[in-house]
Write a structure and sequence with these properties.
Blueprint lengths: L8 H49 L3
C-alpha cells in the first residue's frame, strides 16, 4: 500500500484544530464531571443538614 500524499496547508490546519478541540474536551470533560459529582454530594449533605435543622426548629 502506497503512502498517501501529504495534506495541504488548509487541511492540516483543520485537522490540527479538530485534534486540539478533541484534546481540550478530553481534559475538560473529566474535570467537569468530577466537579459536578462533588457539587451533587455537597448539595445532598447540605440539604440533609438543613432538614435536620428544620425538624428541630419547626413549630409543633
Amino acid at each position: 500500500m502506497a503512502p498517501s500524499k501529504p495534506t495541504g496547508r488548509a487541511e492540516g490546519d483543520v485537522e490540527a484544530s479538530l485534534f486540539g478541540a478533541a484534546a481540550a474536551l478530553a481534559v475538560a470533560a473529566p474535570a467537569y464531571g468530577a466537579a459536578a459529582l462533588a457539587r451533587a454530594r455537597l448539595d445532598r449533605r447540605r440539604m440533609a443538614r438543613w432538614d435536620r435543622e428544620w425538624d428541630a426548629a419547626e413549630p409543633r
